[in-house]
From TrEMBL:
The keyword Transmembrane helix applies. It comes from Alcanivorax dieselolei (strain DSM 16502 / CGMCC 1.3690 / MCCC 1A00001 / B-5). Pfam families: MS_channel_2nd. It is a multi-pass membrane protein. Residues 106-168 form the Mechanosensitive ion channel MscS domain. Its main location: membrane. InterPro entries: LSM_dom_sf, MscS_archaea/bacteria_type, MscS_beta-dom_sf, MscS_channel_2nd, MscS_channel_C_sf. This is Small-conductance mechanosensitive channel. GO terms for cellular component: plasma membrane. The chain crosses the membrane at residues 12-36, 57-82, 88-119.
Length: 272
């Protein structure tokens, strides 16, 4: 009987906390947090347009502040509006921890992984990364997942926990510039010095090239189909990762045109 009385008493405490006035304040507070985060993002994008060289730093700041707004703001809202008794907070925290541990273990793992990503920083917002078969730009690091925008303009959502256990490669590691690799194949009897000079001239005259870092080549003999060829692997830097595709397209288009105009021999496929 005493146990039943305790249960009824606890239910009464919970019901008293969630009255109509408190629920209304919680809704208004939630809308305020959402509006605050929305305004922060608008301000951040405005700053990025005015200060493009500080784009990555601004994106990282917005991500961290958004995380703090939602986590600290939600906690402060619950404690400030409901003002639950200390015993109720301890009991609710214990019950919530147990429930999360069993029912939401994957979500909790992603939340913890999100914190690790923010502080360990294997990559940053704005980085171009390769994760498995997915390649693109990190546009957001959230509480539960990382959002990656591919070069085909698809938005891919990846749980944070996967980045803790799997390998991820960052192409620019927080910098605006990034190495872009382009391959060109020519016949074995082609004039290699002439071709290298031609490709170098195209790269350094591209409006997307970052010339403070060197242009380099890796030249080797490879097999394409049934034919042997010389591969020129051109390594150059684009001045902003946003121009990666434009830079590669510009270089490939101009080099291919020059090869055709200058009569540079291409590999001949051997028919069996």
């Amino acid at each position: 009987m005493n146990e039943n009385g305790d249960i009824v008493s606890d239910l009464a405490v919970v019901i008293d906390l969630f009255n109509v006035y408190a629920i209304l304040l919680l809704i208004l507070g939630g809308l305020f947090l959402w509006a605050l985060n929305w305004g922060l993002n608008r301000l951040g994008h405005s700053l990025m347009e005015r200060l493009p060289s500080r784009r990555f730093l601004i994106l990282q700041f917005i991500t961290l502040v958004s995380f703090l707004i939602y986590t600290l703001g939600t906690g402060a809202l619950i404690l400030g509006v409901l003002n639950p008794p200390r015993e109720f907070i301890l009991a609710a925290a214990g019950s919530l921890a147990v429930a999360l541990g069993f029912a939401l273990k994957d979500v909790v793992a992603s939340l913890v992984a999100g914190l690790l990503l923010l502080f360990d920083r294997p990559f940053q917002v704005g980085d171009r990364v390769q994760f498995g078969d997915t390649y693109g730009e990190i546009v957001a690091i959230g509480l539960r997942a990382v959002r990656l925008q591919t070069l085909d303009d698809n938005l891919v959502t990846i749980p944070n926990s996967l980045f803790i256990t799997d390998a991820v490669a960052s192409g620019n590691a927080g910098a605006l510039d990034m190495m872009v690799v382009s391959d060109f194949h020519v016949a074995l009897d082609a004039d290699l010095e002439r071709i290298e000079a031609l490709i170098r001239e195209v790269v350094v005259t591209s409006r997307y090239a970052y010339l403070k870092k060197p242009v380099s080549f890796a030249i080797e003999e490879v097999e394409i189909g049934n034919a042997l060829a010389i591969r020129f692997r051109t390594k150059a830097y684009v001045l902003d990762v946003r121009y990666e595709t434009a830079f590669r397209s510009d270089v490939v288009t101009r080099v291919t045109t020059l090869f055709r105009e200058r009569g540079i021999p291409r590999p001949r496929i051997l028919r069996g």
